[in-house]
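INTERNAL AUDIT FORM
Audit reference: QA-55
Scope: verify that the stored structure record matches its stored sequence.
Auditor: D.O.
Record contents follow.
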Amino acid sequence: MLNFEPLEKIANAVLYEGFFLYPYRKSSVKNQKRWHFGTIAPAGSMQTECLLEGDNQTSIEVRIRFLQQEIEREVKVSGFRPGSLMESRLFAFPPIKGELSVSSVAVSDSVFRLTIRIGNLSEDLEDRSMLSVHTLLGIERGQFLSLLDPPEEYKIATAACRNIGTWPVLAGREGDRHLMLSSPIILYDYPQIAPESAGDLFDSTEIDEILTLRVLTLSDDEKKELSSGDDRVRRILERTESLPPQALAKLHGAIRGLRSASKLNFREGDRVRLHPRKKADIFDIALDGKIAIVESVESDFENNVHLAVTVEDDPGRDFGQARQIGHRFFFGPDEVELL
């Protein structure tokens, strides 16, 4: 049986993107009328196409999810087999009417192009749009192929896939190819919610620290308005005001994508003199000639080497040693002089 649970958090982030924006008050101009990615207006449509490996035993489940004003809606087609006739389902959540259709065509003996089309059949009135529409795909006895990194022999077939208003990526656990998320926000394969995030802020790629600090600066009257409004918005306020200091610290300056580098001429603890070459910002100018201590030698996934340093005479050097931004800096090996 298909398990869509690994998709739940990221799918909900897509569903509620733009649901309510800071300062989270209905009286705010930008919250008078909500704006969402993936809106299908009356007579509009959305289409997902992707490739899958399978046979006549393969079974596919398609779920579409959207908001009708503030209400979550879901429609699904289960048990679709690649190579079978198109399957369509009409649905209605008055005053919204729509149609979900699923079809496929063979690309080779074992690979099929799957097409999911969502249409809004409602009359052309303002309150009949489908908001934050996205599609969840699951497959049994088969596997999806990545559109971002397809096998060489299927690159042409992948390029022929036509996605309208959405883009499908592999989802769930890294390496698994049984789940796909087709989102109006273009994502990489296997998107994840940042582990530091304490909860939804309705702004994907949320800059959690800034939004959290801004919520804390709201006036008592503004907080009272939030508390009397939408339940999800009230939970933002309650969660933010109860965050312990260590949770707030985790939001500050998380760095990913670095690996330990070896066989270099620099080691942890080396004293170096800084000679920034780019002069890209005020820090490059202010730190020129300063003596620093190498905290770590790292490389990114393109094998570029980075030296993480703290400045020797920085009164806040202990913050840098704790990997806090503002007191920990990165330079290339050609920008430092070993002392």
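Auditor finding: record pair retrieved intact. The longest helix spans residues 231-241.
Action required: none
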